[in-house]
């Protein structure tokens, strides 16, 4: 059993946690065969704004607009496409800003590590195979390994130590910071992403997926899709 990751994140956004239509930290267990989602409508917006998200606006200002949707639309998490790093030094002061982190080899493996954060702590650790762990790596001491319950601001130091061990270094070839907690500060490297997206409920069994597309760090167009 494999946990659904990356390419299926948009589907998970639409099916998690009732009316809180985000990639919620409550949804940390592997999901197999998500239910079929039917597209009701699809619109492309290339001028003006949508939900306060303005075309041609800089990424940092758009992030502030998304943050304003927390109370009005129940948006708590923002998925960041292609938010990859290959250098561990790029992660300093950034890890605690995210809710979902993936570590893996460049080719992708069943032993890739999925870490979910909640309220400033590690909530869960899974391998891509679907195996749940209490710590990773399993053979390291509690002081050296990433453990459920660890403070998120301690992750960077532990990652540096783990990467320094040759048997684990390959798991840092591709580091993905996939889901952003919008209650936390802006991450400037988000501006390099080609797309951000989030979803929320707009009525009984109807959900809206908003895809914000960027070019050169500014919004180029927005896709709005409704599903049921």
Provide the succession of SSEs. HEEEHHEEEEEEEEHEEEE
Helix content: 10-25%
Number of helices: 4
The total count of strands amounts to 15
The N- to C-terminal Cα distance equals: 26 Å
pLDDT < 50 stretches: 4-12, 14-25
Approximate shape: elongated
Structural class assignment: mainly beta
Strand % is 35-45%
Work out the radius of gyration. 18 Å
* Biggest sheet record: 11 strands, antiparallel
Explain what the structure shows:
It comes from Dyadobacter subterraneus. This is Lipoprotein. The strands form three sheets. Strands 1, 4, 5, 6, 7, 8, 9, 12, 13, 14 and 15 form an eleven-stranded antiparallel sheet that branches. The chain has a two-stranded antiparallel sheet with strand order 2-3. It has a two-stranded antiparallel ribbon with strand order 10-11. Mean pLDDT is about 85; it is low at about 5-10 and about 15-25. It is built from four helices and 15 strands. The protein has one domain (about 5-225). It is mainly β.
Quick overview:
This protein has 4 helices and 15 strands. The protein has 228 residues and is mainly beta.
Layout: helices, strands, pairs:
Elements: H1 9-15, E1 39-45, E2 49-50, E3 53-54, H2 59-67, H3 69-73, E4 77-80, E5 84-85, E6 98-104, E7 113-118, E8 121-127, E9 132-133, E10 135-136, E11 146-147, H4 155-163, E12 174-181, E13 195-203, E14 206-215, E15 218-227
Antiparallel strand pairs: 1-15, 2-3, 4-12, 4-13, 5-12, 6-7, 6-12, 7-8, 8-9, 10-11, 13-14, 14-15
